[in-house]
Design a protein that fits this description.
alpha+beta, 4-stranded antiparallel beta sheet, 2 domains, 7 helices
Length: 204
């Protein structure tokens, strides 16, 4: 059992890596096969170079314009626009170059009842206007099936707990089923106060 426990994550890692290499290699391998070139890994390297060149082209003004026109056509299609919008939201959220459409912060809300909490991501904020006055609400996306399916809750901004976790750490916690959960989580306010007290102690 100890051997299985040790070898299982190693086997899964190598299996997924091998599957990924074969999957990416399959994009250009048929083209090389028609040319009579049979070198394993050449399609994978070509795919990596192609993705790199697409990234450089998309970073330029001309590339951004071309991709904007392409997005405009896709968003006009009835069924494809929903799939594209959802996948783009996820890719934007985990990309290193985050913008206003990405997940803002990791959030912890009380759900579904008192004493239980749920992990989520703050996506936007809205002001609810009522007879009692204006109330600022945070739109919290709580994934129920990894990242691409979830529920949206409007929670009072004062009741949202903002832990000292980055967006990437929050995604890792959800994807891993909570196995990467740190042993201690503190709100940002408490963490900032703790850092200030440490600095004051050092000065003293």
């Amino acid at each position: 059992m100890t051997g299985c426990v040790v070898l299982f994550p190693v086997a899964v890692t190598f299996f997924l890596t091998w599957w990924f290499v074969q999957f990416v290699d399959g994009f250009f391998s048929p083209l090389y096969a028609k040319l009579g070139v049979d070198i394993f890994g050449l399609g994978f390297l070509t795919s990596v170079v192609f993705i790199f060149l697409v990234g450089i082209f998309a970073s330029s003004w001309l590339g951004a314009t071309v991709f904007w026109v392409g997005e405009w056509f896709i968003k006009k299609m009835p069924f494809m626009k929903h799939i594209y919008s959802a996948s783009k939201q996820i890719s934007t959220a985990i990309s290193p170059d985050q913008n206003t459409t990405a997940f803002k912060e990791v959030a912890i809300i009380r759900h579904p009842r008192i004493g239980e909490y749920a992990f989520g991501f703050i996506t936007s904020s809205v002001v609810l206007q009522s007879d009692k006055g204006d109330e600022e609400l945070c739109s919290v996306y709580v994934p129920t099936n990894h990242l691409y399916i979830g529920d949206i809750f409007l929670v009072n901004s004062e009741e949202v707990i903002r832990p000292n976790l980055s967006i990437r750490e929050g995604i890792e916690i959800i994807v891993s089923g909570g196995m990467t959960m740190p042993q201690a989580i503190a709100p940002l306010e408490r963490a900032s106060h703790k850092n200030q007290s440490i600095r004051l102690d050092r000065i003293a």
